[in-house]
Specification:
Length: 271
Amino acid sequence: MAAPGVRRHGTWEVAAPARAIPGVLMAGFRDLAGGTFEERVPPGPAVAIVIDCTDGSLAPLAGRVEGGIVTGLAPAPARIAGRGVDCVELQVDLAVAPALLGVPPAELNGAPFDLADVWGPEAALLRARLIETRSWDERFALVGAALARRDRTTARLDPEVADAWRRIKAGHGQVPIGALPARYGWSRTRFWSRFKAQIGVPPKRAAMIVRFDRALRGLATARGVAEVAAELGYTDQSHLHRDVLAFTGRTPGAIAADPLWSVDGTAYTIA
């Protein structure tokens, strides 16, 4: 991989690889001030993997996780804390997650998983090598190589489920869900059943999470709540307020004022 793009965002250093990996967004985060944080893990339209590149700067507040945290589309309410964070984050699209992780997205919902429980012994070896270097270029190359080694399984979502997921994501959660089964010649019951079995939530819930994630990123750019709500088809500001509160435990105003949320959004816009 070529040298990554790096920028400062407040006290954070944020990096992204120059070369994209299909189906995977990757970024690096380093808190130069060595501060602390505690946040609830929100749902999102990807399998999220966060690999701690130090000796213990990230940890859930419950459960056993050592250095690599994996969360699915619909994580159970859980909180994560950190101090002096220095990590690599991956957002793995649900369509490629079975091949790269060896399990369907549905099996990754619930409490955060330890990366070793998903990737096996390779997780510890990868993390040890990430800790050895502070170079984002080298870190992204190491993670990219690890992903390439894993992309050998034939595990896939059903083509119909994968297509439905792509449409929901591309439409930012505003796709007419009721019209999807007919596209595949499936009954509504079969479509709902297959989608939930592989993705982990029903199609309407998936669309709700996709739209919420878009709203969260909009709020993090300091745009007004009314503007974000209107753009994403929420009934009104109260509707958006309820979703944000339910998924994060915080109000839209609190999200907009918290620099930690804007740091995450910044990572995936680096040219």
